[in-house]
Amino acid sequence: MNFEELIIRNPRGKCLARPGVSFTFYCDESLHTLSPRVAQALNVFSACVGANTLQTFFNSEGFARPLSASQRARDLANLQQVPDQQHAIIIEYSSDVEGWVGDFGFSYHGADFSHYLYEDNRANYLRLDFPANAISLFGMDELLALFSEIAQILSANFANGGFTFQRSSATQGDSTRKINRFLPRFVGFDPGYKDVMDDMRGRTFTAHWVNYIGGNLIAGMGGQSHILQVLKDAECRQAGQGVFIRGCRFPPVGDINRQARDIGQIPAVSRLLQQRRADITAFGEPTGKFDGSAWMARLDSLPCQPWDNETFYHELKV
């Protein structure tokens, strides 16, 4: 499989969306208590990828600008102590020097929920983006440790990670249609559609390569011992106040044209998450063009495959 064929560009050749490995964290807390821990997560992420890897940020007018050390310091200070009168924070950093979708990205959307139409359902959201070859760049153990560490730092309600169609707020609309055409074939991919956060309070999203179920959700799924038993053929363990789940050894693409033989135990994870799954029907297009509910349930009826999918992963040549 050639990952280059999944890159979506505009007529000028600029990247609107790209396949990569992403970790996404959904948190039920208000930005005033959550944001200081997002600052900690930013420092952990930067230490992993390199202090100078993130090159641009989006200002309050939505324009990409160079990310200077002083701008980063201002953002960190604001995260560490959000003023009471501030109701929302959006921080989007990219490694692309022009602000398009680069190999690395950091995207935080936080709110106090008070002025949102969907305040009963909205969660706050952090996504960390890596290249598709992140495992060879950083090592499997290091990458998984980072996912688990940040999920615990944030006390995430739910988190997942694996291959994702990465995009920014600026490119989300322009890339939606093409991404939605890929999703039914590559069932191992996350759509990278950030607006699902409007429906994620106290809920789970789709099952992915790695998943984290936070303490608030565990009881509603039968408790930790039940989860460990149901997913005994996957990697499943306690992680702080939550449970870490790895559905297969390597991140799958889940190519339906090849019987999705690399999806490991992810269908079993999907069936577990089903009981608390968010009711999301749209991913930027009307249901008549893309059935979001069917996509969310796409793995429920599939048979599990062997957890060790290393052979299929190496065939990808990422």
Describe the structure.
The protein is of the alpha+beta class and 318 residues long. It has one domain (19-316). Helix content is 29%, strand content 20%. It is built from ten helices and eleven strands. It has helices at 31-49, 69-80, 134-138, 140-154, 172-182, 215-218, 224-230, 266-273, 292-296, 310-316, and strands at 8-9, 15-27, 56-58, 64-66, 88-94, 105-111, 124-130, 158-166, 210-213, 235-239, 242-246. Strands 1, 2, 3, 4, 5, 6, 7, 8, 9, 10 and 11 form an eleven-stranded antiparallel sheet that branches. Strand 3 and strand 4 form a beta hairpin. The longest helix is centred in the first third of the chain and has 19 residues, at 31-49. The model has no long low-confidence stretch (mean pLDDT 95).
